[in-house]
Amino acid sequence: LTGIVFAEQSIKALWEEGAEVPKCSAIDNVPMGQEPLTDSCKHCEHGFIGGTCKSKVRLYMLAEMDGQVKPLVFALSPTSIKHWNAHKKKLHRSNLPIVAVNTTLELMDVKKGTYRWAEVKVGIDGIATKEMLMLAKQARDQFEEVTRQITDRDYSDPGDTSVEPF
Asked: Going by C-beta distance under 8 Å and a sequence separation of 6 or more, which residues neighbour residue 18?
C-alpha cells in the first residue's frame, strides 16, 4: 500500500473478554472513557511492554486506489510500531513532515523459533504531489471528527493487516 499519511494517533486499550468497549483506553497517552484506571498512562500498572494494555498506532492516509483517492485508517500492530517510529525519525532528520512523502506499507514475514507473524515495513516512494497535499489538508481538517474514540474495530483483526476506510 502506498499513500500519504496526514495524521497519526497512538492508541491503547485494556479489554475484558467479550466486552464491546475497552475497560480503559487512551488516545495519545490521555486516558479516556467513563472510569479510566489512572490519570496518566505513564503511571498505569497495565501499560508495560507485554502487559494487558495493548498499544497500536492508527495511521490516517490518503491512497489512490482504482483511479480514486480514498481515505484509509491503517492500524499498526505493537510489533510494527518500531518500524513506523524509525520512519518518522528518518524524515525528521531530513526536516520533512510525514505528509510530504508517499509512504509505503509492506508486510514482512518474521519467524522466531516456532512463531511466525507479519510486521509492517515502512518506506518512502518519492515526494507527495501538490494535489495530494491539498487533499491531505482537507482530510486533516475533518480528522478531529472521527478520531476521539477507540472501537472494537481497532483491535478485532487477528493479524492486524486490515486497511479500513473511515
From this structure: none
